[in-house]
Q: What sequence folds into this?
């Protein structure tokens, strides 16, 4: 029988260390909604989402209450929309965006992801139409998240799209300049994007997936930090074992919630994404884990090694705790969503270049970074190209979610609100990469991609 | 369905009586109780069986929480599964 000590340990994780299930994300395929008529297409999309996800929020809340663990977000991911709207032509995409937004509001989810295109080797007309529509789509809707996969270890990097997305990011920043250039916070560029990621802004329902699926993202940086407080000064073996054991426990909660949600909704269980995702709350921070490991600030020498330890041991502990692990799984290092990272930037300890180095060993990439609004589109493309190259060469997912805040300069702070937090404007290397970005074309796949 | 009830708060007369009375009225059977008092702080854990309970699980969670507010302690009911999942392979 369960002992009182075990019950107390679990409840302390929930009440004092912010253990939560970060998201239950329902993946819904829209492939069967494709139509040449925009009206019919949008009607089918609206009906499929609202019919199948009608009970998602209610079910999530009920499960949260029964287990006594918060389930913070209930979300939806859909098939990359470039594939769904292609038969309708250029004007269809914004209509689809409005429909997705309306459907999300109807079922009560806070985000719907999948306004996406996969262009790692090249773009179709549909892909280009979707990409061109992203600024308008994100500025006139509230709950849509968008992503574009521009590279992979097997295909190389589509530099034409990287160049275009620099311009697109500037455009969406400008369109939402009265709201902290917020549209950029809902858009992410990927290399090696995964098809079952439950986390926003990069979630989409891959074409290799079932018709519908339940994916769950667990979190709990605070729980890891709390566990490490008990092994202060111990060696790396003890440190790694502690992270591993904690990750196992966190993931078991996610597995339980995912199976329960799957059973109640009658939708197959997909994967658990065991990511340590921080929030702006004190005690829910990746940077605080670095502090606990012995670094004065995130960004100090040793930070990349500390993150590598964290990322690897979260996976090692979590993999055995779930029947299917997937998504991005590891540690996220967003700046605006982590008060410890924000403090490190403000203290001058953490720079864009150090963050880039850290993305070599974390689970994703440059995330929620605010930069001056006058940063050129080419420079943004250059930042994206660097990050995509890291992903391509290292066979890992990398991403860029960067916000050129129109009207803001280094030293300013921008407020995004809610889980997106606030961010100091970070300086960007001012030397030009314009001639490099303007070359166009595609970077070929790296030599180690030839594995067959 | 089994649940775990935890009661934490400043000790006073009648905490167990209040909680047990509520459980009896709702048809909830107590399978195990353990309780300690450290420096005047009351800490109790109960394992209960809700299979004959006349209310839905979430309703019992709310009612126990309300009862806790009335008597000045924190009362939680959670499904046993979360603890089994986390601490047993």
A:
């Amino acid at each position: 029988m369960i002992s009182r000590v075990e019950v107390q340990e679990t409840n302390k994780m929930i009440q004092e260390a912010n253990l939560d299930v970060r998201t239950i994300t329902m993946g819904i395929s829209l492939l069967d909604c494709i139509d040449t008529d925009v009206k019919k297409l949008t009607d089918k999309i609206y009906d499929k989402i609202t019919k199948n996800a009608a009970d998602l929020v209610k079910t999530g809340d009920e499960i949260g209450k029964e287990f006594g663990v918060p389930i913070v977000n209930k979300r939806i991911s859909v098939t990359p929309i470039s594939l769904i709207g292609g038969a309708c032509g250029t004007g269809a995409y914004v209509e689809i965006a409005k429909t997705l937004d309306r459907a999300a509001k109807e079922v009560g989810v806070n985000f719907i992801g999948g306004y996406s295109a996969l262009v790692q080797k090249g773009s179709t007309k549909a892909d280009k139409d979707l990409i061109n529509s992203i600024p308008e789509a994100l500025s006139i809707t509230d709950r849509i998240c968008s992503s574009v996969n521009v590279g992979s270890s097997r295909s190389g990097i589509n530099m034409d799209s990287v160049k275009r997305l620099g311009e697109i990011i500037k455009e969406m920043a400008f369109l939402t300049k009265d709201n902290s250039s917020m549209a950029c916070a809902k858009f992410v560029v990927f290399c090696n994007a995964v098809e079952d990621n439950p986390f926003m802004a990069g979630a989409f329902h891959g074409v290799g997936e079932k018709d519908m699926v339940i994916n769950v993202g667990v979190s709990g940086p605070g729980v890891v930090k709390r566990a490490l407080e008990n092994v202060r000064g111990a060696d790396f073996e003890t440190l790694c074992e502690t992270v591993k054991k904690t990750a196992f426990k966190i993931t078991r909660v996610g597995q339980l919630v995912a199976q329960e949600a799957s059973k109640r909704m009658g939708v197959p269980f997909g994967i658990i994404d065991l990511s340590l995702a921080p929030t702006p709350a004190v005690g829910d921070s990746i940077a605080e884990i670095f502090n606990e490991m012995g670094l004065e600030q995130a960004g100090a020498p040793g930070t990349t090694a500390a993150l590598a330890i964290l990322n690897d041991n979260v996976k090692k502990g979590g993999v055995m705790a779930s029947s299917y692990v997937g998504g991005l799984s590891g540690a996220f290092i967003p700046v605006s969503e982590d008060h410890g990272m924000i403090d490190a930037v403000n203290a001058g300890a953490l720079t864009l270049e150090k963050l880039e180095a850290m993305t070599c060993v974390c689970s994703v990439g440059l995330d929620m970074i605010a930069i001056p609004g006058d940063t050129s589109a080419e420079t943004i493309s250059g930042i994206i190209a660097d990050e995509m190259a890291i992903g391509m060469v290292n066979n890992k997912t990398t991403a860029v979610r960067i916000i050129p805040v129109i009207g803001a300069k280094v030293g300013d702070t921008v407020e995004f609100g809610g889980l997106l937090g606030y961010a100091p404007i970070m300086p960007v290397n001012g030397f030009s990469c314009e001639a490099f970005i303007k070359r166009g074309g595609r970077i070929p796949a790296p030599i180690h991609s030839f594995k067959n | 369905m089994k649940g775990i009830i935890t009661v934490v708060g400043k000790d006073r007369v009648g905490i167990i009586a209040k909680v047990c009375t509520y459980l009896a009225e709702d048809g909830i059977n107590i399978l195990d109780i353990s309780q300690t008092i450290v420096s005047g702080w009351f800490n109790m854990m109960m394992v209960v069986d809700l299979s004959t309970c006349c209310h839905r699980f979430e309703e019992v969670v709310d009612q126990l929480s309300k009862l806790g507010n009335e008597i000045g302690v924190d009362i939680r009911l959670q499904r046993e599964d979360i603890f089994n999942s986390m601490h047993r392979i």
Residues 300 and 359 of chain A are 15 Å apart (CA to CA).
